């Protein structure tokens, strides 16, 4: 039995175990509670097998087992071991296994965390998680098996990973995005369990609270890293292009954000119960919809790394989710009715509701715009695609409205705001807003950030033209307003504690420590505002493209870029063509050296990648793209972009994550309660040393038992065997082999690269 | 990274063995291998843990509400009904938590009563010079009470069988004398303001034999606090 067979067998057994765990969970919930222990261990066993399968695939990549189709199509021998690990999620089949692996991680963590908590909900939480896992296992076994054997003869080398994915951000961007996507399964499982059991009080919300924050945090991290990858690797000069796959990860983020806000209203006034259930179900639905968009290949995308015909599976699964959720909500409608109503429009709960409507409105808009090509093809028979300008026309005003709400929300009182407390709350933030707004309006031009942008040359101007001219000014002013409100919130809270005799820092520490979710949330808001600042900077981009010969100088804005010389390098995986540039100051003195490049990967000779050079700073980035280069004369076409304030997008992302960390971190009291709870477990742990010893011995025995089997897989694809296989191969295969040899010995292929560039 | 394949093999073997072990445990459990006591202990713990979490959530809501009032985000008129509701719910939860460990509270109170009694008798026979001893006796009683309270707090764990033997917790709760230590801690956690009725005071009213307790006087507001309190329950000042 080789790795391919072992992997497929493991997935089969995992599916059987998953069904077993699902059945025992349901039976435990339906009046046979003693089966809950069996269900929990069944869940652990299923997770263990999926982890085993994932590690098997990782092993197959590291040992270049090209008998497996997926390994053959997404890796080659020259790849670094770290990129061989990223191959796990580089293609469709593997990404489904990776999804299952992460889901198992969450499931095992949640099962272990629940211990003896939520015994009434637990069976259905486990059953829901197992049903999700079951879907992915079915999908792998019947539609996209990552262990499927490659048809035809054994290959000496693989086709290699898409060069765009061979970037260090891709090592962490997809996992964090997947962690965000998959993470929403746990809160979804809790809400389904609450609907089934009818326990719709605060219990499920408390249980799902931190899981949803964790999922949201990972999704935010994934989106930010995605922007960073796009900025550094795609080489088009931007970080967000409203690409369908980018949008697919943005949808659950929008709904999830709406949920995180509306749940606060339910916690305080037991309102919006149906709404919160709906939002959580919709968030999970959007994660599946996002995967469908990514994997089905129905819509063209720069992320077209993995396409296949598994879309129909996702369609049926989405239908199932809608039917089940709707049925459960309708069934539990009487229990979901709110005890209170919103009494006044000038209240924080209404601000939250407004925020929810806006998030949901944006989500609906983005979904429609993303699927517009499909819709038009279906309705009118022709595919119409909408581009970034269309998105920006709508998203800039709605985004700014959300930013205003970000500042106003925390200032308004619960239930009903009075004129007195509104005046008190808004006074200083409005002063800060006025100062920043006037400074930007009258002094901005001197630092290259004019208040109103010059209007484009047109015969007549619309209101929209004027709005977009003033949009950067509105944005910077609103950012100042929000930052001032957040600072005021921290100051007022600290001042309250200082009145009790605490020092400034002690008061601040205690304030955040005692209301971590609230102040963690404010820190998250700060991160969002910083990101808005970065996005505002895009209005002031300066861009220039030109052809430069070695020794020539190109001037862009205040920068002077001197082209020194071209440079060529090569490693086992790729050939690299750099142009060495020197940044000069106003006096013509050299400041810094940067080297944009083009890479030509051995396995993708017709797909050169653009490696941009970025000189980054808090004021602006200098972004240089090597468009083409003439190998004979060394003349290079360079595109130089000055991008103000981009730095603050990444800084905002870090601040946002810090806020999430504060919000989810357990307090000392929670830790103490946890230690109090675990006495029973502690007694059990007295038997642990023996268990650990036995496990260690069993692992060693298992290793010895498995080694020949695993080693067998490696021997199969050793170069010697591969060469002998090639010698008896048919002509297409031999041609491929010789083709590889030819390319690797062809020293003048850089000329080909130059041609590609032109 | 020639080590990586070996490490992956090792990890895969560990995952496989864990899966087999979990499967074995699952099959044993589904065949009735789980004893009823374990299940009943699970049920007991669930109730207690749910109450502890509910208590933590209610206290957090109370803190949040107080902060909102201090920041003028809730008017005084709105503050009162919400505050009353949250406090009522918190007291109910704390009462139920106390009931859960009722037998330990009885034991703790008996220890306190015994210690105080012996201290009083010795104090009455001697003069003011023995006042320090009284205090130390009180401290000793308090320490014992704390130990009793700790045991009660751990009732969700190894005390499960004992609690189960003691029968319905509601019946046990009816026999509880004035709670001394546990309610004191809870009252502190509630962060009650002047004029509020604390959980301990409620229970003291219904107590058959009120136990005389040592007090700690707050330097800021002169309010009485339990001996083991670290912060004043009236003004919040550090004691």
Account of the protein in words:
The complex is a heterodimer of chains A (758) and B (239). Chain A has helices at residues 3-29, 35-62, 69-74, 81-86, 92-114, 122-142, 168-183, 185-197, 203-234, 244-269, 273-296, 311-331, 348-370, 372-380, 388-408, 419-443, 463-498, 504-514, 516-537, 647-664, 668-677, 679-685, 688-716, 719-727, 731-745, 749-757; strands spanning 542-548, 553-556, 559-570, 574-584, 590-594, 597-601, 604-611, 613-615, 620-629, 636-644. In chain A, the strands form two sheets. In chain A, strands 2, 3, 4, 5, 6 and 7 form a six-stranded antiparallel sheet that branches. A four-stranded antiparallel sheet of chain A has the order 1-10-9-8. In chain A, 64% of the residues lie in helices and 10% in strands. Chain A contains 26 helices and ten strands. In chain A, a hairpin with a 6-residue loop joins β9 and β10 (636-644). Among the domains of chain A are: 3-405, no CATH class; 415-514, no CATH class. Chain A is α+β, with helices and mostly antiparallel strands and 758 residues long. In chain A, α2 runs parallel beside α6 (122-142). Chain A is globular, with a radius of gyration of 29 Å. The model of chain B is unreliable at 127-141 and 151-212 (pLDDT under 50). Helices cover 70% and strands 3% of the residues of chain B. Chain B has nine helices and two strands; from the N terminus they run αααααααααββ. Chain B is an all-alpha fold. Chains A and B meet through α1, α2, α16, α17 and α21 of A and α1 and α2 of B.
